[in-house]
């Protein structure tokens, strides 16, 4: 009976997270954030996942938004496509102090848009205050990269209110699906657990079995198990 229950939970975990049509602006007005390994342009989308707003990528004819979260590449149907005119004065640089807030994580952390070179492509991803990495979605996984740029705006831009300083980093608490709670940084909730990192520069990552590990340089191994350096 327990095996059947676990199989049911596992099958629910891999169902599409949201249903519905994609939205607002056509890709003709979308903000281009990179290009894929096959050369096709990638555009910014903002997907809704577990009550958060996550920056992701989409492309012409795809009608979905791929976002990195908890060690996986999530494909969501409920998302927005911001107009490129919102980022008219923006530019890419390494300094995060003038980063533009793009989304908000499940633990309340502000999310910024980052960009990195990966296997001959230029992939968009997400970062946040105090983290010092760029997490991208690729090949079904969330991949952590270290060499990246962040979307920023000039200090005197009219969109100045969107800028948030890294001093916003605070510990948060996140509730799990079964009444449990964890407190700390960069919290992640899986189907069966919830966990938070001890410091802002660490990350938590979940595997497809619902296990969560927190630390640095988190990876999913060949057995689909998550492992982090403590």
Automatic annotation (TrEMBL):
> Signal peptide position in this chain?
1-19
Keyword Signal among UniProt keywords: yes
Question: Per UniProt, which keywords does this protein have?
Answer: Signal
Cross-referenced Pfam families: DM9 (PF11901)
Q: What is this protein identified as?
A: Uncharacterized protein
């Amino acid at each position: 009976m327990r095996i059947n229950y676990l199989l049911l939970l596992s099958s629910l975990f891999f169902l599409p997270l949201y249903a519905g049509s994609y939205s607002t602006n056509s890709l003709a007005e979308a903000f281009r954030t990179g290009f894929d390994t096959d050369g096709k342009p990638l555009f910014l989308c903002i997907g809704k996942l577990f009550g958060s707003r996550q920056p992701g990528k989409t492309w012409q004819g795809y009608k979905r938004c791929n976002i990195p979260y908890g060690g996986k590449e999530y494909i969501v149907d409920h998302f927005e496509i911001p107009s490129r005119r919102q980022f008219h004065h923006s530019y890419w640089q390494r300094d995060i102090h003038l980063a533009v807030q793009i989304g908000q994580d499940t633990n309340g952390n502000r999310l910024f848009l980052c960009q990195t070179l990966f296997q001959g492509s230029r992939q968009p991803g997400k970062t946040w205050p105090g983290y010092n990495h760029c997490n991208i979605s690729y090949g079904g996984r969330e991949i952590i990269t270290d060499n990246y740029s962040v979307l920023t705006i000039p200090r005197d831009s009219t969109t100045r209110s969107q800028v948030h300083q890294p001093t916003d980093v605070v510990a948060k608490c996140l509730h799990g699906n079964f009444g449990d709670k964890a407190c700390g940084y960069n919290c992640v909730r899986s189907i069966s657990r919830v966990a938070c990192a001890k410091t802002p520069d660490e990350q938590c990552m979940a595997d497809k079995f619902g296990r969560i590990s927190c630390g640095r340089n988190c990876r999913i191994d060949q057995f689909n198990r998550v492992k982090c350096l403590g």
